[in-house]
Amino acid sequence: MKPTIRFRYRKFKSVLLYALCGLSALLAVVPLVLIFYHTLSLGLSAINLDFFIELPKPVGETGGGLANAIVGTLILVGLGSLVSLPVGLMAGMYLSEHGNNPFGATVRFLTDVLNGVPSIVTGVVAYTLVVIPMKHFSAYAGGVALGILMIPTITRTTEEMLRIVPQSLREAALALGIPRWKTTFRIVLTTASGGVITGILLAVARAAGETAPLLFTALNNRFWQTDLSQPMASLTVFIYNYGVSPFSDWIAQAWAGALVLMTMILVLSMAVRIATRSRFGRGT
Amino acid sequence: MTPHGRVEPAQADHPARQPRIVAEKVNAYFGTTQALYDVSLTMLDRSVTAIIGPSGCGKSTFLRSINRMHEIVPGSRMTGRILLDGEDIHAMDAVLVRKRIGMVFQKPNPFPTMSIRDNVSAGLTFGGVRNRTVVAEIVEKSLRQAALWDEVKDSLDNSGVSLSGGQQQRLCIARALAVSPEVLLMDEPASALDPISTAKIEELIYELKRTYTIVIVTHNMQQAARVSDQTAFFYMGRLVEFDDTKKIFTAPAKKQTEDYVTGRFG
């Protein structure tokens, strides 16, 4: 049978739409490729062993590295995770398992609002809550600011991921005489762990990339510092400071810092995914 | 009523059987919708009670109120009493009730993140049994009881969801048996399975009733006739008739029951 005009027209529309979708998918990853390429081409020249093990050199001297900032970012994000993981995970569990009431709806709404609060505002809040009483900038304050930023992401993704765990699994567990809280922790959370971990990684990646809240809290530090009650260096603040400086070697180091930060997040994401991969190779 | 395989027609005479579960005037609600009206039913020790009736007649709701699974549905409530060995289940902790009254669901629902072994032992390990030897023994015993051991003994570490549907359902039965319940509730345990798996489950029920009190909800009247000692016919949330299975299927007292079991409606 010969295809009719209408059939050919439909076929044409189908192919056209297919092409558009493919093109859009390509466009969606183009920025990432561009950013990575650009960062790589400008930052790679400043990457050497010194960059990872040396401290920043004083103005005028060349060389040096951002060892303190790399460690500082890890510490600050670690502190932020320490604040946000317990709160976010348990709030998400509450919302998913027991949150079908006005209180739950309110918490859900406020969490979404918190998610939309500009990060610099969070920085100011942490400044008021931690920096002013302590009378100086500190890693603690930075951790609190990042923690507050991470909570809504972790809460809402945990909730969403737990919600898609089939009710039949909860019933199976409860019918075995497993208490409710154990069912939530050991059955529901484990089943949803892949998605929950993705949410946590998103929050970590976001926190690691924040600059504004750290300006008010952890500030910056050109020296080696692991005392959490003192100001602490971070890659993002260094990228900002060096990036706006007039010195070409600092600018190159800023690009290198950006490259290192991106690679760190990438490596962390992959490491966590491999470490938490399901035993049976389905999902994660 | 045709028996197949090794499944014998159910025995009607059980003079020495004691009442195990007694439901007294049970009313169950979902929000404002009433699902059960004054259901009173006595289920005997070590026998199989089948609950039949058309969709939406409340048979699953009744089954789920026996182990207090009804109450986990938001907005649900019930009135009346259900006694397990003379003790009101609402006076007991729900967790303890469910340890004594196990349940098998319509669709096989093994825990997807767990191995076959861990699925069977879940109720034990989460219930605080830590001794590995004891757990391993119970896992084997339960899988044997569920007639699954020979098929999975070499692949206990594989995923529970890697099994076929019929095997998954027997895995769920083994999982329920592992916590050594006294009563086993089965909510259409074979409705999602093929005839061969169904026959296996039915044989299993026949074996299990030596030890357990079984209540089974089924859409399949032949199945009820094959496996049960007593049958309850539910319609529109009410218990219409309850009697020995033989009597329900050969000489029911109520016209409604007769119409249903002969296939005139439902």
Describe this protein's structure:
The complex is a heterodimer of chains A (284) and B (266). Chain A is mostly helical and 284 residues long. Chain A folds into two domains: 3-45; 47-280, Orthogonal Bundle (MetI-like fold), CATH 1.10.3720.10. Chain A has twelve helices and no strands. In chain A, 39% of the residues are buried. Chain B is an alpha/beta fold. Chain B has a single domain, classed as 3-Layer(aba) Sandwich (Rossmann fold), CATH 3.40.50.300. Chain B contains ten helices and ten strands. In chain B, the strands form two sheets. In chain B, strands 6-7-8-3-9-10 form a six-stranded mixed sheet, sandwiched between helices. In chain B, a hairpin with a 2-residue loop joins strand 9 and strand 10 (238-244). Chain B is globular, with a radius of gyration of 18 Å. The two termini of chain B are 18 Å apart. Chain A binds chain B through residues 100, 166, 168-179, 182, 186-187, 190-191, 193, 278-280, 282, and chain B through 67, 69, 72, 74, 95-100, 102-103, 105, 107, 109-113, 115, 122-123, 126-127, 158-159, 161-162, 172, 175-176, 179.
Write the layout of secondary structure elements.
The complex is a heterodimer of chains A (284) and B (266).
Chain A: H1 5-43, H2 49-53, H3 67-98, H4 102-116, H5 119-134, H6 139-163, H7 167-175, H8 180-191, H9 193-208, H10 212-215, H11 235-243, H12 248-275
Helix pairs in contact in A: 1-12, 3-6, 3-9, 4-6, 5-6, 6-9, 7-8, 9-12, 11-12
Chain B: E1 19-30, E2 33-44, E3 48-52, H1 59-66, E4 76-84, E5 87-88, H2 94-100, E6 101-104, H3 116-125, H4 132-145, H5 149-152, H6 165-178, E7 183-187, H7 195-208, E8 213-217, H8 221-227, E9 230-235, E10 238-244, H9 245-250, H10 255-261
Parallel strand pairs in B: 3-8, 3-9, 6-7, 7-8
Antiparallel strand pairs in B: 1-2, 1-4, 4-5, 9-10
